[in-house]
Structure formats: structure tokens, C-alpha cells
Amino acid sequence: MADRREMWKALGMDVDTHDGLCAALPVAFGDVYLSQKNRPEGMAFWDFVVSDIHGIRPAELLEAQKEGRKVFGTFCVFVPDEVVVAANGIVTGLCGGSQFWVPDGEKVLPKSTCPLVKASVGARLGRTCPFFRIADMYVGETTCDGKKKAYEILGEDVPMYIMDLPQMKRECDILKWKDEIAAFAKKVEEFTGNTITPEKLDEAIRLINNKRKALARVFEARKNPDNIPISGTDALLVTQIAFFDDPARCAEMCNKLADELEERNRQGVSVFEKGTKRIMITGTPMAIPNWKLHHIVETSGAAVVCEEMCTGTRYFENLVEEGLPTLDEQFMALSKRYMKNNCACFTPNPGRVEDILRLAKEYHVDGVIDVNLKFCCLYDTEGYSVERALREAGIPVLGIETDYDDGDSEQLRTRIGAFVEMLG
User: Fold this and answer.
1) Omega of the bond leading into 325 within 30 degrees of 0 (cis)
2) 142 contacts 165 by C-beta, under 8 angstroms
3) Could you give phi then psi for residue 176, rounded to 5 degrees?
């Protein structure tokens, strides 16, 4: 791996503290990922990315900034990447998925805040994540009370733009989100100095749609009821990296992986023994490097074949209509697509339950694990209706609450192991 210390120092990072993360990550990655058997060869790309995760992409972003391009850091799947790309900007994900960042977040946030929010704030204020240092502007959204207040803290340090997401899905709400996208486009034009034209936005829509299609192909291969060509742990990593990677490269590598997975299905090459129980995970998103639950499930006799969450199907399902001639029509098309995301922030939210039941059938799951990060009241509250609907449909479900700390790992392993045994 290249020596990135000078780059990190130039970004104002706390390099000595960051070294602790750099030392721990390879061990964790090795224990979770490299210990797997019969992995698809295509996963070598994502292994390479993780081996220099705070070096390769950050170096690319810094080179782009030298060329005058702006980097926008986002926290949620509702922010329309297409608008930024149409103005020659770059999008990078910012959510933190490690306990490493939580203590710095707790210096300014209550301990009873979701670990994802605390880790995201801690990654910035602790100066131990290059993506948080590089982004020229942060783009937030009103999906979560914890994040909304955290944006006020982050906004003291970095230019912050917040999109006001409607909390319902009426026609007037779709129109309101279209207006929010149009306002965001004006801000992006002002910040980048580049004009968004219908031609540029249509090109960006096609680019991001191609990334979605490629990710969908990877997930489509996981639907095979007789074969499991890739572990859920590996599939999760692919999705996590998609939030950071160049969209064209992401599509290219996902398509190559999908080619291999489809061939594996034809030849009956599986990463698990025949008869392994198929699990879908739903609930709060799993930002990188949060691999805990997948690893426990897949070392407890089961396989994860689908994720109904933002770091899963919600990220790539539904395409934006292409070929529209005006910005107003394109903004409406973007609004319609993004408002199909069934986040727990909406009320009422029957669409998420419908998605879970549909996906359970499509992926031929034997059981569902509904996971909630501690202090995420949205998904915790919605767990009642989700688990009730699954039980009524005759689908076994296990509700779990956890955080980033490994202190509950053995307890989770016991509960998940018992759940898997019950499926048998």
C-alpha cells in the first residue's frame, strides 16, 4: 500500500490517531472477509479498494479538486447524485460505520444518539476520515432528528446544505420534493460555477441508472433458490463501496462481478452448502465498516441473500426516466424515483412492509432478521408493524437491537444461532 501519510497531514488529519484505525481495519477485514472460502474472483477488486480505502479514492478526489471540480459529501440515499454529476461535481458518501469514531461524536452529542450519527460527527471532528476532510460541501436531508441536529454542528465547520424531505407521499409531497431538487440544483450551480442543462442532466441520469442496473444484476444473481453464488457479507461490501466509488467504474466492476455470479449459478458453484438457510436482513443501514451482523449470521449456519435497507435494495431499485427534454420534467422524474424509497421517516409507510414481503418471496428467504441500531426510534418503532406483517405471512422473523461495539456479539450469536436452528 502506498504511503498516504503526507496526504493525510495535508488534509489536517490527526495522523497518529488515524494510524490506530489503519492498524485495526486490516485485521477486522481479514477476520470477516479473507476467512471466507470459495469467494468470487471478482471480489479481488473490492478487497483491493479496502486495502487502501483511505488512500485510493481520496487521492482521486484531491486530483479532481485540483482541476476545479467540487466534492459533495452526502449522508443519505435521498440526495440526488444526478444533480451533482450534471454540474461536473463528485459525490461521496460520508456515513460512519465504526465504533472507532463514536467517542469523538459523543463529545458533542448525547450518548443516547444513534451510533451512525455519532460516528459520522466523530469522523469529522476527530479528523480521522479523509472523506470528511475532502468534501467541499456536505448535503444533508431531514430524514432523522438526530442527523438534523448533527448537521447544525457539522455546519459550523463545513458548508452545509439541507434538503427538506416531505414526511408523507401525497401528490403535493412529490411536487414539493421536485421543488427541493430544483432548489438544490441552483445551489449546486452556484457552488460549482457550472450550469446544469437538460442534456447534462440526462447524461447524469443515464450514468447513475447504469450503476443501479449493475448493482441490480449482482442482487438478481442472489435470487437463485438453488444456489448462493456470493455471500451476503461480500454483497454488503459491494454496496457500501458503491457510495464512494466513481459511478462508471462501479457499474463496470459490478457488471463483471454479475457475469461471474451468473456463470456460478449456471455451474452450481455456491459459497454455502446446499440447504443452507436463506436470511434477509431489514432495518437500519450498515455503513462501512459495519460488517458485524452479516459475519455473525454467516458463521452461524445461515446465508444472507438480501438486504432491504439503504445499504441494499433501496439504493438501486427504481430507475429515473431518461430522455426528458426539460429540466422541470427531469426534476419531476427524479422526485418520483427518490420518493419511492420507503424510509421509516415516512408516515404512513405501508410501502416498506410491501417491499419486505415482496423481497422475501423473490429471494426465497427462510427467515428475516429485523435489525435496529440502538436509539434509532424510527426503525425501532416501525419494527412492530414489520414483524407483525411477517408473522401474519408465515415468515419467521427475529428482531435485534445492536450498535457498533462488539460487546454483544456472543449474545447475538446465541440468538441468531437459535433462530437458524428453529428454521431447520
Assistant:
1) no
2) yes
3) -65, -40
| Backbone CA torsion sign across 141, 144, 149, 151 | negative
Write out the E strands in 44-194. 71-74, 90-93, 137-141, 160-163
Task: Provide CB contacts within 8 A for 369, sequence distance 6+.
Answer: 279, 280, 281, 282, 283, 293, 297, 397, 398, 399, 400, 416, 419
Tracing cell 448493482 back to the chain, one arrives at: 215
Helix (H/G/I), strand (E/B), else coil: 163: strand
Write the pLDDT tens digit of every residue in 150-164: 999 999 999 999 999
Instruction: Please report where in the chains the cell 433501496 appears, as a residue.
Output: 314
Neighbours of 407 (CB within 10 A): 10
Cα 288 to Cα 98: distance, rounded to the nearest angstrom: 7
Note whether 126 and 101 are within 8 A (CB). Answer: yes
Three-state secondary structure call for residue 377: helix
pLDDT tens digits, one per residue of 61-70: 999 999 999 9
Which H or E run contains 379?
helix 377-392
